[in-house]
């Protein structure tokens, strides 16, 4: 049955347990999860023992099932169970007519009096008697585990107040600038005040006349122009004098009028300036007060039903999910029922469409006619007024009576409408709290996205160092190619000089090395290596490496400034705190050993030239040093003559050692060339490794720099994100408590 209902309310079902013994009742209440018990006593003879045992041990409501006979029921049988503490009696429908009005009144109003055996006469109790019995029944402080509505309401109010104040604190932390939190504070402070009935509508729709008709006198000024400039509270006040009303303005800006109208004993009526007024301040006052309303009565004028501004205002009210009762005032302008039916259908259909509502409470009235009827009637009691309205054939007055009856039923806690009034009253601050919490959650979701974006931006800047390292590595390859190209060119020149120097045709060079020995002065080839090849090459290499080191420094400086500017532009609030630290950390970017320059500095052109000279000398001495003059002459002759018969003749003239020396000369020359290649290649490797080391140190410096300067920003972004996530958890917790309160309120009628 509950699954098929369309209600959006959350209602928890009650679990009942049928029992016949006290032990079964105790078990059902303690271990079986029953919410109440139906006890079938049958023909139990030991009623006192059963009642004593059952009602002392069982703390949940107990209903006693009575088996009635055709001979009637004694009042003593029923009243004894009620006095024992039963929450009610269970009888069959066929036996309901055994209860007369007198028996019901006597049963629930004279429980403490002595009873006599009384036979029940047949008769069906009327509605008035049942309502009276119910009211008397619930006025007791407590009946077998059931709290009376007022007590349960008080408990809910206290619980709700605690949760709402917690919501206020969380909302203030989540959104310190949210001004609407004052609405929640006001609603929380007024949760135990009378029901707040707020009258809204466009100006000149007859709101003031309608309120006067409710009050029964012309307390408020009426007119065709806006007559209400402020939010006006109409409260009840006893009046012993002829004074109609007493009005005063409170320090908080509220305008309060105290009026001796009976309807104000149970509710506060709020008159608003209205909508679609010339003064925007008045419209703003009305809109700002809507969230505090427990029930809205929207007054529409029959001469202009449902205007565009009224629709816009209604949509605004639904932001706060308010219950709205519509009053079509001035309905007496319609000529017949057909015109009235067309107007009410038009309003109902459009309100259903605009507000997405299934049912629309709409009362067509004439407030002026109702007020005139009240003023002209000389009655002394509400009953006389009721009889007057019932006998009045004019529908416009009768329709106003229906509206009044609806409102008065709201004030009666024993009716379903009265229960709804209680729920609306309790749900008003919850609705405000949920709206504000929802707004905070929306704002926090955006803040969370921004904080995540900030954190990801910081991490993105930090990780972009990898891209910077790749770019530096790419550019570094070009620099290394330049230096290796210079080294390779130098090597080629030295090798070329070596090969051209180690020729047997260089008679002067051979003679100089062989005959002069180590005492000879520096040879021209050696001077050329030092002055023409190595010297200029080292200067060029040094200049190139200086440019390379300068490029490393400038790249880090430039990129470091870009990183710093990225942080400062993104988070200007942290600039001042990090400026000094950033300036100090810029020195870190230039921390470089400059290994490549040290490699060049450690390479001596003079030493290399001497080594080259020694290698040339050893080749010649090793080739010709062991030959005599004749052998040397023959060897040189062989080297310069064509390989003909003359060669053989020359070789015949030479010793056998000369031929062997000449044949080993190319191999010795190649050894020198290999040594040159090895020496230069080693230099190239040292330079390349040193340049890579300098590049790696440069990138590492940048990584250290970005990690240091990003730390405050990263910590700030992470801290902000952590606070937002914590705040979201707190809001979720509050929202959960608000939902639980709503469930309790929705199930208020079951408790």
Automatic annotation (TrEMBL):
Keywords: Membrane, Transmembrane
GO molecular function annotations of the record: GTP binding
UniProt domain G: residue ranges: 198-330
Gene Ontology biological process terms from the UniProt entry: thylakoid membrane organization
Alphabetical list of Gene3D superfamilies matching this protein: P-loop containing nucleotide triphosphate hydrolases
Annotated CDD domains: DLP_2 (cd09912)
GO CC annotations, alphabetized: chloroplast membrane
Matches recorded under InterPro entries: GTP-bd, P-loop_NTPase, Small_GTP-bd, TRAFAC_Dynamin-like_GTPase
UniProt cross-references to PANTHER family, sorted A to Z: SARCALUMENIN (PTHR43681:SF1), TRANSMEMBRANE GTPASE FZO (PTHR43681)
Protein name: Probable transmembrane GTPase FZO-like, chloroplastic isoform X3
Protein source organism: Rhodamnia argentea
